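Onboarding guide, step 5: your first structure request.
Type a short instruction followed by the sequence, for example:

Predict the 3D structure of this protein.
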Amino acid sequence: MAAILDVWIAKPGDPCYVDDHAWVVRVFDGDGLIYHWANNDYGQLPAPHAHWAGTIPPGCYVVRAEGKDAQGKAIQTDHAIVVVGCEGHVCVRLFVSTGRDKTPPPPKLDLLRFTITPREVRSGSSWKGTVLISGPAPAGGVDVNLSSSDPVVAGVPPSVHVPDGTTTASFTAPPTKNQTQQPIEVTITASLGATQKTAKVIVLPISH
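The system replies with structure tokens like these:
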């Protein structure tokens, strides 16, 4: 005895309609292997207009289809588990996976504020910087990049790490160095993604 298995592939992005592109239907047995019956291989069933129909013995099968999107990129449908009865006619509609069950990406974080204290230090002294981001850092934390307009006078570490679940972090800069007789103003830049903030530190000479 044999039954009819009728497979239709829904249009990607519009599942109420049948797609009109070429697909390949694959039928697997209960062990996850390509099904074979009566010298027929059910692993490469052509579905030129997103439709394939053929005979198959009664049983339980896993059905899936593979094709290409409008840009030629390989795509595949979700699988369907099909139980075929004796002399039955089973229709199956396969849907292209949308990926909605995947974990959404973490929200984009911005740098809200960057401050320096004190803003005026004598040569040889250090200062402290603090960053504030727009939301809690994800697992593993996030690094805010740092740079100095004059790293010889007022250097900074490459970045400051905001621990996961927090929104702020601080760092201590290395000792400043001013060998002139005049105060030197240095711009410190903190950046995260497309956002950046600046703050200025004034380094006084030792003899000032």
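Each response can be followed by summary notes, for example: Residues 129 and 144 are 12 Å apart (CA to CA).
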